[in-house]
C-alpha cells in the first residue's frame, strides 16, 4: 500500500509518445502564434485608424480655429461699416448745406435741425442713446459726471441742477457720461 502523501508515478513515455506530444505542443504553439499574429495585425490596424482619426480631428480643430480667427478679423475690420453707412446721409446734408451760398439764418436753422434729426436717427439705429437727465433727477455716478456742487438751490441733495454736456451710451455701456452740476443740499 502507498502512503497518502506520495505522488503517483506516471509510466515512462515511449519515444513515439514523446514525439507525438512534442508535435502536438508544436501545433498548439503554432496555432497560438498565428492567433497572436492576427490579433497584433488587428491591433496595429486599429492603432493606425485611431492615429488617422486623431490627426483628422486635430486638422479640423485647427481649420475651425483659423476660420474663426478670420471671421473675427473681418468683423473687426468691417464692424463700423453699418454705422458709417447710416452717417452718409448726414454727410450729404452737410455738403448740400455748404453748397448754398446765400442761405438765410432760418434756412440754416432748418437745415441744422434736419441734419441733427439724421444724426440722432443714425445713432438710435445703432443703439446709441442720449443720457440727458432733467433738473431734479437723482445723480447717478454710473451715467453722470458731477462738475460741481451747487449750494442753496432748494433741491434735495445729490440731484441734478443742470446739464452742461449730454452723455451717450451704447446698449448698457457708457460712451461718455453727462456732465452735470449737482445740488449740495
From TrEMBL:
Gene3D superfamilies: 3.90.20.20, Head domain of nucleotide exchange factor GrpE. GO terms for biological process: protein folding. Keywords: Chaperone, Coiled coil, Cytoplasm, Stress response. Residues 26-53 form a coiled coil. One of its GO terms (cellular component) is cytosol. InterPro entries: GrpE, GrpE_CC, GrpE_head. CDD domains: GrpE. It comes from the Bacteria. Its main location: cytoplasm. One of its GO terms (molecular function) is unfolded protein binding. It is found in: Cytoplasm. Participates actively in the response to hyperosmotic and heat shock by preventing the aggregation of stress-denatured proteins, in association with DnaK and GrpE. It is the nucleotide exchange factor for DnaK and may function as a thermosensor. Unfolded proteins bind initially to DnaJ; upon interaction with the DnaJ-bound protein, DnaK hydrolyzes its bound ATP, resulting in the formation of a stable complex. GrpE releases ADP from DnaK; ATP binding to DnaK triggers the release of the substrate protein, thus completing the reaction cycle. Homodimer. NCBIfam families: PRK14139.1, PRK14140.1, PRK14150.1. Belongs to the GrpE family. This is Protein GrpE. It comes from Comamonas serinivorans. The gene is grpE.
